[in-house]
């Protein structure tokens, strides 16, 4: 998503610079690590400010934009730099988590809140984020909806849906592995003939291969693919299967739907913003229904090709209307240009 944002802005004529490569991230709530990162962030602030001050005025930044400020990865740099040079400070996909203001991430959570307070505008990607941003909005801060978007300017070639089902997901411990396990348990309950291609790789691949080993040749592992190679797979996929355990939203859902591939996902808050609804609610199973609910939905999809035909047309139209680069560019620039005092 961050790469999509940079590409979209630069493609619209802006000069986009990655201001820092410092990775501010604390996975485990380690106070010592947080202190080290704060010190490194202070050094980065000094470096960036010195470079900006030394640059000709015409080459100095007009705006600072930070992507994904949250309690494990607060923006410790942007608000200070923006304030020193009196330029607008903007965030995309910021989240607020009051419950983290106590506990091992308390200082980082407060820093994330402070950074969010400093933003003139916060672009939110999902309604779930909007709820907490609205609850804790700072003064007259603007909250603007920016649906997750693909970098494409037009829809790709649609799938002929002649191939196997498709799953695309990173293979790592935690929620991703949980999704793979749930999918395997659901597939074990599906009696219709099926084939599944899996695209992805990662440190948990042995575990994924193990949970899928019961299906033998019905499951094919394709490994990590670049975007062009993955597009070839999308253009043959019949149904996209990925439960999406605790996914923030999931770009793979948009990629699949842009090719007209129906998506079978659980009914989760972040996913509702990117996964087109089926005409039957049972085809978006509740997380509480577990593998059984997912298996029942998949069985119904495999039983009714006409249902998939209707869904294929629906999902492509929804992506075209909401999730392509031109729509995202219009939403971004209609908000950013007034901040820059540049006529539209």
TrEMBL record:
<dbReference type="Pfam" id="PF13692">
    <property type="entry name" value="Glyco_trans_1_4"/>
</dbReference>
<protein>
    <submittedName>
        <fullName>Glycosyltransferase protein</fullName>
    </submittedName>
</protein>
<dbReference type="InterPro" id="IPR050194">
    <property type="entry name" value="Glycosyltransferase_grp1"/>
</dbReference>
């Amino acid at each position: 998503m961050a790469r999509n944002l940079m590409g979209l802005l630069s493609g619209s004529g802006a000069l986009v610079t990655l201001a820092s490569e410092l990775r501010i991230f604390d996975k485990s709530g380690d106070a010592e690590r947080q202190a080290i990162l704060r010190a490194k962030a202070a050094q980065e602030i000094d470096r960036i400010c010195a470079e900006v001050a030394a640059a000709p005025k015409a080459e100095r930044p007009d705006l600072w934009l930070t992507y994904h400020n949250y309690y494990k990865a607060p923006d410790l740099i942007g608000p200070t730099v923006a304030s020193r040079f009196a330029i607008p400070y903007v965030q995309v996909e910021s989240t607020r988590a009051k419950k983290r203001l106590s506990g091992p991430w308390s200082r980082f959570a407060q820093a994330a809140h402070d950074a969010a307070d400093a933003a003139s505008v916060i672009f939110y990607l999902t309604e779930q984020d909007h709820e907490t941003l609205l609850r804790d909005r700072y003064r007259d801060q603007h909250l603007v909806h920016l649906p997750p978007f693909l970098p494409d300017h037009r829809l790709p070639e649609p799938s002929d849906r002649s191939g196997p089902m498709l799953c695309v997901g990173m293979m790592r411990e935690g929620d991703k592995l949980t999704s793979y396990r749930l999918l395997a348990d659901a597939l074990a309950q599906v009696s219709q003939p099926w084939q599944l291609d899996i695209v992805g790789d990662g440190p948990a691949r042995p575990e994924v291969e193990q949970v899928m080993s019961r299906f033998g040749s019905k499951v094919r592992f394709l490994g990590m693919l670049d975007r062009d190679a993955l597009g070839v797979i999308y253009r043959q996929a019949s149904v996209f299967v990925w439960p999406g355990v605790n996914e923030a939203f999931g770009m793979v859902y948009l990629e699949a739907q842009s090719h007209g591939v129906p998506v079978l996902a659980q009914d989760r808050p972040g996913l509702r913003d990117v996964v087109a609804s089926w005409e039957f609610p049972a085809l978006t199973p509740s997380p509480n229904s577990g593998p059984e609910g997912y298996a029942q939905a998949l069985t119904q999809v495999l039983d009714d090709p006409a249902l998939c035909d209707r869904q294929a047309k629906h999902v492509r139209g929804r992506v075209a209307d909401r999730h392509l680069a031109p729509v995202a560019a219009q939403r971004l620039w209609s908000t950013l240009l007034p901040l820059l005092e540049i006529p539209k």
